[in-house]
Amino acid sequence: MSVTETDLQALEIREGQYGEAVAAIEPGGAEFIPLEERHGRPTKLFWTWMSPNFEFATVFVGVLSVAVFGLSFWKAVASLVLGTVVGSVFHAVLSARGPRYGVPQMVQSRIAFGFWGNILPAGLQSVTAGIGWFAVNSVSGALALNTLTHLPKVLCLLIIAATQITIALFGHNLIHVFEKFAFPLLFIAFGLGAIWTFSKAHYGVASHEIPGAFLISFAAMFGYVAGWNPYASDYTRYLPVDTDSRAAGVWAGLGLGVSCIALSTLGAASATIATAQGLSPTGAFTAPYPTAVRDVVLLAIALGAVAANVINIYSGSMSFLTVGIRLHATLRRALAAAVFGVLGFLVAWSSLNDPTRYENFLLIIAYWLGPWLGVVLVDQFLRRADVTRLLYAHNHTNWAGPVAMVVGMAVSIPLFANQLKYTGTVVDSHPGVGDITFEVGFVIAAVVYALLFLLGRKDRAR
């Protein structure tokens, strides 16, 4: 599908020359990428999405499934694979639209939510990515660097944060190149660690499952993987418009899926190994390794944190830009990246001595993503007309989107949420239900949106 002159007239087109430059600051913000600026192949998406998940947060989801939720190794793996596959399929579907529309994911979200209604998911995503995940990953990276070098924790956090913010400020092309060169280093390092972990793991350890453990583990894994979904087309929008959209989706989904399955399974195996008390999570993970391997893996954890957070900062700022604040585009993106980086640093600093704080964060992250995905995917399925004109139309309203999302959240969270410090009414009475907040929120939002969309279409036809 080609982009017509009529399409271009309806778009805010990014100004400035960028091309394939790596050492240049990306111009513009969340505008449409001009056709002459498009470049790259879908295959690069494989390492772009592999590298950010070769990090300790991915490992820790697997650790939770065994150490906290009490699943046996094989049950844990089943829940982790299932959660990853669902999130990766959604990621592939969303990534596939990037080459055609040439805009960030949260700009595409305006189609289903309207220009101003889109502030709801875009605002949530800005905070989730730019502050929440930034803090989660920065803490694990700083603790790994601290264990490796014995430098003060705050200094390690500063080093990690400064590196992440700098790469994110340069933007799209440097991020892709950084992920490409980080990938083989991360693969080798975690591969070495996996040899020791899988050889020492206790696969037959009896499980002590908490009620609903399988679905809680599934929800945590899905929450982690789907946390990348609102970024999907941010990294496919620069591909040429005639790129095979299916190839873009497949390579992005594979990179995300393979890395998350591999690292979360590694985490589940590591949780079956008794480790010394009083260590940080990263220290406990690497404790069984020979010194040389331990040091390499600790360095990889720090590098993996950077690989994840350059995407979190960049896409978090992209989400923030979609709320319609008027400033020079490049300045807006730079300011957003810097502000979110500083705020994320402060949150991470407060968590340095209690790194397990993000257990709940990993669980609740799916609670708004399920309803958002239900709305976006149903809208994508139901619309048959060209939607390019809606991407930057300030007068485009579609309150069916935010209404359906709010209804999905309002029903699913208080009734079906099941995390470590809060359980919904249904789960409190029937603990075996586990955590089906995502499924309920997704289905309710999808059904409500479909009904409102179809009713609205009938009204418009009169």
Brief characterization of the structure:
The protein has helices at residues 5-9, 44-50, 56-67, 73-95, 98-101, 105-108, 110-113, 119-149, 153-170, 172-200, 213-226, 245-271, 281-286, 291-321, 329-351, 358-364, 366-382, 400-416, 425-429, 437-461.
Remind me, CATH topology?
Answer: Hydantoin permease
* Rounded average pLDDT: 86
Strand content: under 5%
The count of strands amounts to: 0
Shape: globular
Q: H/E order of the elements? A: HHHHHHHHHHHHHHHHHHHH
Calculate Rg over CA atoms: 21 Å
Write the layout of secondary structure elements.
Blueprint: H1 5-9, H2 44-50, H3 56-67, H4 73-95, H5 98-101, H6 105-108, H7 110-113, H8 119-149, H9 153-170, H10 172-200, H11 213-226, H12 245-271, H13 281-286, H14 291-321, H15 329-351, H16 358-364, H17 366-382, H18 400-416, H19 425-429, H20 437-461
Task: Please characterize this protein's 3D structure.
The chain has 20 helices and no strands. The radius of gyration is 21 Å and the shape is globular. α3 packs across α12 (245-271), α17 (366-382) runs antiparallel to α18 and α17 runs parallel beside α20 (437-461). The protein has a single domain (39-461), classed as Hydantoin permease (Orthogonal Bundle). It has helices at 5-9, 44-50, 56-67, 73-95, 98-101, 105-108, 110-113, 119-149, 153-170, 172-200, 213-226, 245-271, 281-286, 291-321, 329-351, 358-364, 366-382, 400-416, 425-429, 437-461. With 462 residues, it is mainly α.
